[in-house]
């Protein structure tokens, strides 16, 4: 009994220690969030409508702070906590506003189109990277995008440099996409459903879909999240295929050593927040979440998302572009352009409206 109590106290102390370590960095993210919300309120008073939403402002403010100041170890834990856990928790809460019936109502055409788009985009992105002379493993990582790198990297035996450079650069380009994609809404005459589909197909990470779609509208956010979730669920088949190709990848990359390819855990294939999102969506579909609870849940999700976007901005080092070189720049940019074009073709072909 005493041993159980001791373990429980030790576990609670460990959790408290981790939360305490995260406080300084999280406080910076909250400060940037308050500044972003404050500027949005000023816009609303001056123009009756915010031209730049707090979500985008938080990213921009975070980038500005990061460009002038590099956070030390004291701050990193909280920034990472805000960028990862708070962001994933915000996405999970978003499931409470979505009915699974919407997925069924979207029809088999869209589902098949998403699968075809992801498959084609992976093949073309990989081909572009190889065309620009990038190594096989980093070409695979770039093709998958930063939201899948953690799951794919162990399978193909990628080393630390491959992973770091791929994540860093796709993170920078991911922020650029989040900031620039809303321009497609008026430029291409899209409605909210079409734009949500475009965002879900092109934006790298689930939380970044929120930043790209919330300024446009609630319908765009819901559609974009659903489409992106279907893309996330394709991670399992992609990893299975790469697992089957492991012998060929290892043969083409001798000297992998301690980075030898291995199977990822279930948590890599099905992230906890995706399970939580689908669970809340199922509960909502069954009518077990009262309408009165939706507003505070969505408010909490929105605020946490802004905090996460501030952390995302703080994690972007613009100088990384110069250090990584032109070939990766061309490969990642080309991949995004190809993905955008394929997604627009799908929207027009399926006549999504």
Unreliable parts = none
In whole angstroms, how far apart are the ends?
A: 62 Å
Principal-axis shape equals: globular
**Regarding quaternary structure, how should these chains be classified?**
single chain
The percent of residues in helical segments reads over 70%
Write the H/E string, N to C.
HHHHHHHHHHHHHHHHHHH
Average pLDDT works out at 78
Q: How many strands?
A: 0
Round the Cα radius of gyration to an integer and report it: 21 Å
Main beta-sheet strand count, sense and barrel state: none
Report strand %.
under 5%
**Which secondary-structure class do the elements indicate?**
mainly alpha
Secondary structure tally, helices = 19
Question: What is the fold's blueprint, element by element?
Answer:
Blueprint: H1 2-47, H2 54-68, H3 73-94, H4 100-105, H5 107-131, H6 136-144, H7 146-156, H8 160-180, H9 184-187, H10 192-202, H11 206-213, H12 218-233, H13 235-244, H14 246-252, H15 266-269, H16 272-285, H17 291-314, H18 320-324, H19 326-350
Helix pairs in contact: 1-2, 1-3, 1-17, 2-17, 3-16, 3-17, 5-6, 5-19, 6-7, 6-8, 7-8, 7-13, 8-11, 10-11, 10-12, 10-19, 11-12
Q: Could you explain the architecture of this structure?
A:
The chain is mainly α and 353 residues long. It is 80% helix and 0% strand. The chain has 19 helices and no strands. The protein is globular.
Brief write-up:
This protein is mainly alpha-helical and 353 residues long. Helices cover 80% and strands 0% of the residues. It is globular and about 60 Å long.
